[in-house]
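>> received
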Amino acid sequence: MKRLEILLDDITHLKVDAIVNAANSSLLGGGGVDGAIHRAAGPELLEECRKLNGCPTGEAKITKGYRLPAAHVIHTVGPVYRDGGHHEPELLASCYRNSLRLAVENGLKTIAFPCISTGVYRYPKLEAARIAFREITRFLAVYPGFEQVIIVCFGPEDFNIYNRLFGRRAGSLRKIGSHALYTSDNNTVIYQEDQDQTPQEILPSPGVQDHTVPQPSKLDPR
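>> returned
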């Protein structure tokens, strides 16, 4: 199985153990992907969220998925970007770390993230992608039993950013643990384990920046 996959898709359609909701601090629904997840899950999600008493920025809380294909929703509150000097990077990293922590604590094996804070919260997309990529790949190296993390991009711009990031980062990333092997095909960036190869510099796949992307999702990340 592809342990890290980058998709251009509608996160509400994914059948995984959990999808991550880029929520606001009330957890009572809103615009963009937050509103779409609430609409797809049905009113039961809002009823459960009312009992959670909100969520601070950088933290995460878990609910059932109700009418979604996903079994659970992990709600995390990303930072509103001001100038990068108000702890935005640390808070955004905490969103990914705390969401993944909840997944492990609840025995989940597959999870899908939107691009947190890059919509109306205005986090610069490349900087946000670097943080997401760093936190997720570190997590996958520490938890080899976790099956899959999917990053669901809103549009071609996000998708291409991740592919460009993959090309740069893979050129200098060294293998760790049971060896991290990055590969790429036309629509995905993949992290998977390779037990047979010895540690070495991982080179970017040819043509990684020249992907043809499908049509964008209609969901705007928060």
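>> Confidence is low (pLDDT under 50) at residues 168-218.
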